[in-house]
Amino acid sequence: MTSQGSVGVVEPQCAHFSEPLALRSGGVLPAYDLVFETYGTLNAARSNAVLVCHALSGSHHVAGTYAGQPKSLGWWDNLVGPGKPLDTNKFFVVGVNNLGGCFGSTGPISINPTTGEAWGASFPFVTVEDWVDAQARLADRLGIDAWAAVLGGSLGGMQALAWTLRHPDRVRHGMVIAAAPQLSTENIAFNEVARQAILTDPEFHGGDYAKHGVVPTRGLRLARMIGHITYLSDDSMAEKFGRKLRHGEHKYHYGVEFEIESYLNYQGDKFAKFFDANTYLLTTKALDYFDPAFDYGGDLKAALARAKAKFFLASFTTDWRFPPARSRELVYTLLHNGRDVSYAEIDSNAGHDSFLLDEPHYHAAMRAYFANIEV
């Protein structure tokens, strides 16, 4: 048995699907690729597979590093690996880049086979349910009839919930972290402001900026800065930055003076260098549209009645984007549907980003739950 540590050097894989995928928006993808990574070994019974779903800016690269790239650590490496809470000595873990993404799966930067050019603005709207259906086809390709668990945080948690509803016989445990059954009005508002930052960038060109050889960098920077504020808590920002000045005095100009300004500008600059603007627009709209109760007249209990899985939910006290009350809403509704539910409400000052951190009580709860999943 491997000692606790990283899964080591990993390589992404690509699965091509030639069967068209009908989308909830009415669009159709005639064919598509899904880029994914796996960690651990699928057992003979094919009963130990866990799907990890990523959040807005995440990808298939959940754990490990890439050869020759020491700073390429996976976004949830602190959770996934030998001896870690999601133990790859026991589980076969799969991470997938969602459709519409910009990390290898078919998305706006991919070539549209009909035109021979990048999809750009013509890429169809995709939803959480579309992602789940595409992931189900990947599971078929891997020979996985049912997941031991489907796990995700934030938008990834919404995918985990959607899995239990869309394919209830293919998920034994749904693990929904720092998520909600649908976005609040405030969350939709933040997403719209971020989208407007991109849509009104002069370099956006209606989404076909690639044809003009440009990137709507200013819009992407602003969108990320807005989003990043919502991922942190007031306490965590105060603790990290306070009112610290970069130069120790007021300069009386509109440049960067406070450390928090410097941090947000840095995050915006970094994001604009690797993320696609059309993917950002598509993904935030998928967040907005997600609402299992919509087709049930707003009745969440009726919507969740389809689920057969056991559930683990976790929330964080200072997460004001997906506050504990939203997780408790899910817990209450699942319990009233007779589901087996475990719930952890973690005291953390890091805000929404807490689900990505190595918080001891959080990881202890995750470890205990995974330890009790039979494979």
UniProtKB/TrEMBL annotation:
SUPFAM superfamilies, per database record = alpha/beta-Hydrolases
State where it is primarily located. cytoplasm
The pathway where this protein functions is:
Amino-acid biosynthesis; L-methionine biosynthesis via de novo pathway; O-succinyl-L-homoserine from L-homoserine: step 1/1
The UniProt keywords, alphabetically, are: Acyltransferase, Amino-acid biosynthesis, Cytoplasm, Methionine biosynthesis, Transferase
EC identifiers of the protein: 2.3.1.46
A Gene Ontology molecular function term of the record: homoserine O-acetyltransferase activity
| Site entry (Important for acyl-CoA specificity), positions | 321
The record's catalysed reaction(s) read: L-homoserine + succinyl-CoA = O-succinyl-L-homoserine + CoA
Matches recorded under InterPro entries: AB_hydrolase_1, AB_hydrolase_fold, HAT_MetX-like
Q: Active site annotated at which positions?
A: 154, 319, 352
Sequence ranges assigned to domain AB hydrolase-1 in this UniProt record:
48-357
What NCBIfam families does the record point to? homoserO_Ac_trn, PRK00175.1
Q: What does this protein do?
A: Transfers a succinyl group from succinyl-CoA to L-homoserine, forming succinyl-L-homoserine.
Give the family per the record: Belongs to the AB hydrolase superfamily. MetX family.
Q: How does it assemble?
A: Homodimer.
Q: What is this protein called?
A: Homoserine O-succinyltransferase
The encoding gene is metXS
